[in-house]
Design brief:
about 425 residues; alpha/beta; TIM Barrel; 13 helices; about 25% helix
Length: about 425
């Protein structure tokens, strides 16, 4: 039998390690943790093993006899919580450093029809906001362009890497369309009120013409002159890419769905979708998933309940609509750190804790088309997870101590935590 040297030590916040000095620590077992798989299953006393960058085993430890020598390292979690990496959908995180400084804004290009614009190549892995997001358990994001009408394509990336080439998980997963609105809230002589979009009909005509031309172009077996805008639409028409449509009100979403079906779009995802619960029947018939806007928001109408926005996820779940939560809204990059607490709010208004977790893990992964790699703690998937001292979805107990992205430990510090430690030491605060 192979000899193995074992010693006992402390790892980070008191996690016990059985450490082999014979070989690199690539085969690791985590035992005695409360494992939240992400698909609704919870192992109160679980074991999770990872080999290299992927998960090898996730199961209940009851009745299991562990052979420590089979692993390089065995970590006793002592009742800490294990969660899949949270996924931040439809966000400009990593595409700007300071919203007030135009030169740092890389999420919007000039013009209204830009399907060829790739947000991926503008993703900055050294962004100062990103570390503050990782410390709350969010390890992946969908870098998404903003703009008028067709903004460009998004990609799914990890919040760790030397550059965007290192960070990318799925490149150009879909094209983002900002569907025209007939009316919008804006400032005018009479203050902040509902305004008519005078360019509405013109925008619709331009969109329809572009989609018709692009569809015809993509149907040709050969072209004499390449059109980069039309080329960027091929995946949308053949179903390999999603068409993400930003629409909020019920009538806007209905018009957007009709528009997509008219042009033969197979994979449609509605984003923001504040009134998605009002068209649940249509969404179910058409099998259209939803990326909800930020829940921590005020109700739209004076007659709405004050908690109307909080109740939408539970209503969608009741109607079997596939949805995920997001931080779409004002200052969304910085709000991304609150993603677990959005799920926590949803769990207080009708969803169970595990359903709420699923809305920022497995369901998000399914909507983005990366559920074979992410979203749940299952054998064969990437070893991307977080370990928290308490409930990850509760702002009072969220305390992420350890995180891994594809089997690699993640540094969990940021400018805020560093300043906290600096001044705590200066004034002798224990």
């Amino acid at each position: 039998m192979k000899k193995i040297k074992i010693c006992f030590t402390l790892w980070l916040s008191g996690l016990t390690i059985i450490l082999s000095a014979q070989k690199p620590k690539s085969h690791i077992a985590f035992i005695n943790g409360i494992i939240h798989v992400g698909n609704g299953t919870v192992y109160e006393t679980g074991i999770m093993a990872m080999q290299g960058n992927s998960l090898e085993m996730v199961m209940d430890m009851k009745g299991l006899r562990l052979n420590p020598s089979a692993y390089d390292t065995v970590i006793d979690l002592q009742g800490k919580h294990v969660y899949p990496a949270l996924i931040n959908t439809n966000n400009v995180l990593g595409l700007h450093d300071a919203e007030a400084v135009r030169a740092t804004l890389d999420f919007q290009e000039v013009g209204g029809l830009n399907p060829h614009v790739r947000s991926l190549i503008a993703y900055n892995t050294d962004n100062k906001i990103t570390p503050t997001v990782k410390t709350n358990g969010v390890l992946y994001t969908q870098v998404t362009p903003r703009g008028n009408l067709i903004a460009g394509s998004s990609s799914i990336v990890a919040l760790e890497g030397w550059n965007w080439e290192d960070a990318v998980l799925k490149a150009d997963d879909g094209v983002h369309l900002f569907f025209p609105v007939e009316r919008y809230m804006g400032w005018g002589e009479d203050g902040f009120s509902l305004k008519k979009n005078k360019a509405y009909q013109e925008q619709l005509i331009n969109l329809n013409r572009f989609f018709e031309d692009a569809k015809f172009y993509c149907s040709q077996t050969s072209v004499t002159e390449k059109n980069i805008r039309f080329e960027a639409m091929r995946g949308v028409f053949n179903g390999t890419q999603r068409l993400y449509i930003m629409a909020d009100k019920a009538h806007e979403m209905t018009a957007a769905i009709q528009f997509g079906r008219k042009h033969g779009i197979k994979n449609i995802v509605l984003c923001v979708a504040g009134e998605a619960d009002k068209i649940a029947g249509l969404l179910k018939r058409e099998s259209i998933p939803v990326i909800l806007g930020r829940l921590h928001d005020l109700p739209e109408y004076e007659h709405d309940d004050v908690d109307a926005v909080f109740k939408v996820p539970a209503r969608l779940k009741k109607d079997s609509i596939v949805f995920c939560l997001s931080a779409i809204g004002d200052m969304e990059a910085m709000q991304s750190r609150n993603l677990p607490f959005l799920a926590g709010t949803a769990s207080a208004y009708g969803l169970s804790k595990e359903e709420a977790l699923q809305s920022v893990t497995l369901d998000a992964a399914r909507i983005l088309g990366v559920d074979k790699q992410l979203g749940s703690l299952e054998a064969g998937k990437l070893a991307s997870f977080v370990i928290s001292k308490g409930d990850l979805l509760d702002m009072r107990t969220n305390a992420v101590e350890v995180a891994y992205i594809s089997g690699t430990p993640v540094k969990l510090s940021n400018q805020q935590t560093e300043l906290y430690e600096k001044y705590k030491a200066k004034y002798g605060i224990k």
